[in-house]
Amino acid sequence: MNSFSDIGFFALLIKQGSMAATAQELGLTPPAVSKRLALIEKRLGVKLLQRTTRQISLTPEGETYLTEGARVLTNLEELERLVSGSRSTPKGIIKIGATLGFGRRYIAPAIAKFSDLYPEVEVQLTLNDRPINLVEKGLDVVIRFGELPDVRLTARLLANNHRVLCAAPSYLKRMGEPGQPKDLSKHQCLFIREADESYGTWHFHQGLKTESVKVQGPLTSNDGESVIKWAIEGRGIMVRSIWDAEQYIKNRQLKIILSDWELPSADIYTVFPTRNNLSAKTRVFVDFLLDEFTKYRSNTETSW
């Protein structure tokens, strides 16, 4: 055994979720799996897992070992591929998931270009109005907004993005412009149904100061374009990603409000499973997307 195989073993243990499942996957007994974990912890001098009879959970040291270890294994694989020159031919089915609006406007056209370059790869695109669980849906790649929630996945920044609070000048003239986030509770707000846990509550921060505001309004939709149309018509205030709203802000159909407050992160990532032998079709697709969206990644303000 060596450090690299220990990292791979630990990643498999977390993926399987139990000693018994890992033992079955490796053709070992649960005591043998437990013993190997104990040897790794002894060598490192730290506890990697909290264990009960029913479940295992990562310690902070275990989380670091898992996430940083995945990067080490990925780098090692890339190094060996570079040195050996072995690169399998990208072919077969690749399943991609994305949100409705961004997927329709940006990912679908990119996939068409990718298909021209790699005719042996069949791309199946699924667009959804809610965040897609890559593991549960059996997808190869998902385009998602915001921070990565699952340590079993790897994320690469696709595009810089942020959310803005905006409304039509006609609405602001009629109802007044809020000066603080708390003022939003007195306004008509427009909702996009994407994440139930945040529905009806908008979160803001300004430096170290944070505010959460319960807002309300008569109109909701799972379609961002419908909500934008309502906002342009002066029916209320909405939160929207800058990639979707910028053209209407530039032509003054919408105006940004509370610009000195920030909304939760909305950077866009391409997400795929963390594993050693990433298929050629997935690898080239991720590389292609990253290249296509280069202009949207920078240290300066994103221009959509």
Structure commentary:
The chain has 304 residues and is of the alpha/beta class. It has 3 domains: 3-84, Arc Repressor Mutant, subunit A; 92-159 and 267-296, Periplasmic binding protein-like II (D-Maltodextrin-Binding Protein, domain 2); 163-256, D-Maltodextrin-Binding Protein, domain 2 (3-Layer(aba) Sandwich), CATH 3.40.190.10. Helix content is 40%, strand content 22%. The protein contains 10 helices and 14 strands. It has helices at 3-16, 19-26, 30-44, 60-84, 100-117, 134-137, 169-175, 224-232, 242-250, 280-292; strands spanning 49-51, 56-58, 92-99, 121-128, 141-145, 153-159, 163-167, 191-192, 201-206, 209-214, 220-221, 238-241, 255-256, 268-273. Strands 4-3-5-14-6 form a 5-stranded mixed beta sheet, covered by helices on one side. Strands 12-7-13 form a 3-stranded antiparallel beta sheet. Helix 2 (19-26) packs across helix 3 (30-44). It is globular, with a radius of gyration of 23 Å. The termini are far apart. The model has no long low-confidence stretch (mean pLDDT 84).
